[in-house]
Amino acid sequence: MARLEAGTRAPDFTLTSDAGTQICLGDYAGRKLIIFFYPAAMTPGCTTEACDFRDSLAPLQAAGYEVIGISPDAPAKLATFVEKEQLTYPLLSDESKTTLEAYGAYGEKKLYGKTVTGVIRSTFLVDHGTIALAQYNVRATGHVAKLRRDLSV
Questions:
Q1: What is the pTM of this model?
Q2: What beta strand segments (E) does the chain contain?
Q3: From the candidates 46, 50, 57, 87, which is the catalytic residue?
Q4: Backbone angles phi, psi at 41, to 5 degrees
């Protein structure tokens, strides 16, 4: 599994959102985009992370950043997650895991001391189509606060 580094071109994608619309990387051309990859909607850690992004969305947007989340969940499950947690940014479905793999956010990882294959919780800052920041194996709790400090937001 290749990991992306700052300065590389962000892999393009077109995925279905929680609202059933198609969203692609090109929709954010010329803007700064935070993409976070998470294992599964409505699980404790992923809910914490998603809600932290929700609660930080206004200051992030004020600083010029947009946010999207990507997981292998089906669009219907994402729609339920958005409604339940009142999330205010798009969640995208990557059931084929093609985008997850392109970003290096799917593969072997340690889970409770065992090596398993799955989603690697990761966050990327894409600035004008280029990876400006790539963070792998981030923690669900406290990650958004650290990201905001790193971005001076």
A1: 0.94
A2: 14-17, 22-24, 32-37, 65-71, 91-93, 106-111, 114-119, 122-127, 130-136
A3: 46
A4: -60, 150
Question: Could you give the CA distance from residue 85 to residue 112 in angstroms, rounded to a whole number?
Answer: 27
Residue 109 has pLDDT above 90, yes or no: no
pLDDT digits (tens, 9 = 90+) for 47-65: 999 999 999 999 999 999 9
Residues 6+ apart with CB under 8 A from 29: 128, 129
Q: How far apart are the first and last CA of the chain?
A: 31
Report, in angstroms and rounded to the nearest whole number, the Rg of the chain calculated over CA atoms: 14
Active site residue 24: no
pLDDT digits (tens, 9 = 90+) for 93-106: 999 999 999 999 99
